[in-house]
Write a structure and sequence with these properties.
The chain is α/β, with parallel strands linked by helices and 334 residues long. It folds into 2 domains: 3-115, NAD(P)-binding Rossmann-like Domain (Rossmann fold); 124-286 and 315-331, Dihydrodipicolinate Reductase, domain 2 (2-Layer Sandwich). Helices cover 36% and strands 30% of the residues. The chain has 10 helices and 15 strands. The protein has helices spanning 12-23, 37-47, 55-62, 76-85, 100-113, 127-137, 164-180, 254-257, 285-297, 307-326, and strands at 3-8, 27-33, 50-52, 66-69, 89-93, 117-120, 144-154, 184-192, 202-209, 214-220, 222-234, 237-242, 247-253, 272-278, 330-331. The strands form 2 sheets. It has a 9-stranded mixed sheet with strand order 14-13-12-11-7-10-9-8-15. The chain has a 6-stranded parallel sheet with strand order 3-2-1-4-5-6, with helices on both faces. Strand 9 (202-209) and strand 10 form a beta hairpin. Helix 5 runs antiparallel to helix 10 (307-326) and helix 6 (127-137) packs parallel to helix 7. It is globular.
Length: 334
């Protein structure tokens, strides 16, 4: 079954959606749309599609099976609702929407119109994150104590409508839920606007998950080199993920190595042990994400990242924004 796809919004991310669609088997990229007609024409010519300045005209002319929505966050609701109204399956780049209310309306509309709705939280498709989740699920770390996320780098000129929390921290809040299977029950944040943005460009945050795990977030648009790392510390040691290189490392707690773990009730100490670099089969996360989306469109799998997943991530990010502005803990037992 060949899936006819289109992309709405061909900025940096949308161009990559078009590239991947054009390269996938049994997928036909039939159109791209962007308010910048020249950008749409250039992308369409490169990947053999039709170009449109008006996305609704494209949808009516081409009647695609699936659509990627990669417009600025403030436009997600208007564009996605038009796609859903036509009963077309869609992937919306994270975050799901600009507001919680808009996200709720999108989810309800998709259910009502029969459109499959997926949210593009691409880090879930990073092979190193997938491998980490498998190791944690197998109990290789024992109890998880803490997750530390670092997502830092220069200010991206593409972002004009949200701050660093909604644009970047939303990734790590979603990943903390994804790898632990636990929910964030409260959050505290310190945020600042230092250089570029009309919104916050720096976040230091702390969250508590329902399983007792603590999470920290160090996020900014101020660091002159790109850092994308995740550390998970537990009874048996620590995992480190490098998102950029897709590497996964395990640093062993040697004190825990020789004990009978099934009967060891009290961890008596921590000492440096072996460092293991796990073999990870590397793959472009966006390609994996779009393959999963299309498999869901074909009915081969359930939608892997639902509208409710996207809504939860947005709610958590907005809680961090509120906490930073109001200098208070947000959530249960706040």
């Amino acid at each position: 079954m060949t899936i006819r796809t289109t992309v709405i919004g061909v900025g940096a991310m949308g161009r990559n959606h078009a590239r991947v669609y054009s390269d996938l088997p049994d997928v036909d990229l039939v159109g791209v749309a962007d308010l910048d007609g020249k950008s749409a024409a250039a992308v369409a010519e490169k990947f053999g599609a039709q170009a449109y300045a008006d996305f609704e005209t494209m949808l009516d002319d081409l009647r695609p099976d699936a659509v990627s929505v990669a417009v600025p966050t403030v436009q997600h609701f208007r564009v996605a609702m038009a796609v859903i109204a036509r009963g077309i399956d869609l992937l919306i780049e994270k975050p799901i929407s600009f507001s919680i209310e808009e996200g709720q309306q999108l989810i309800a509309a998709a259910e009502r119109c029969g459109s499959k709705l997926m949210i593009g939280h691409i880090e879930r498709f990073n092979p190193a994150v997938i491998a980490l989740r498998a190791h944690l699920a197998a109990g290789e770390l024992g109890r998880v104590f803490q997750i530390d996320a670092r997502r830092q780098g220069p200010f991206p000129v593409r972002v004009v409508d949200v701050g660093v929390v909604i644009d970047l921290a939303v990734h790590d809040l979603d990943i903390m839920r994804y790898i632990t299977g636990a929910e964030v029950i409260r959050a505290y944040a310190e945020t600042e606007r230092r250089i570029h943005s009309t919104s916050e460009d720096l976040l230091t945050g702390l969250v508590r998950l329902s399983d007792g795990t603590l999470g920290t977030l160090t996020i900014n648009w101020l660091t002159p080199t790109k850092i994308r790392e995740l550390y998970v510390t537990g009874e048996r040691g620590m995992f480190r993920v490098d998102y950029l290189t897709q590497d996964l490392y395990f640093y062993e707690n040697a004190t825990a190595r020789d004990g009978d773990w099934d009967t060891l009730r009290v961890l008596r100490g921590v000492s440096e042990g072996r460092m293991i670099r796990h073999v990870v089969n590397k793959k472009e996360p966006l390609r994996a994400e779009l393959e999963a989306f299309l498999a869901a469109v074909r009915g081969e799998i359930a939608v892997p990242i639902t509208g409710n997943d996207g809504l939860t991530a947005l709610m958590l990010a907005q809680n961090m924004v509120v906490s930073g502005l109001e200098h208070r803990t947000v959530g249960e037992a706040a």
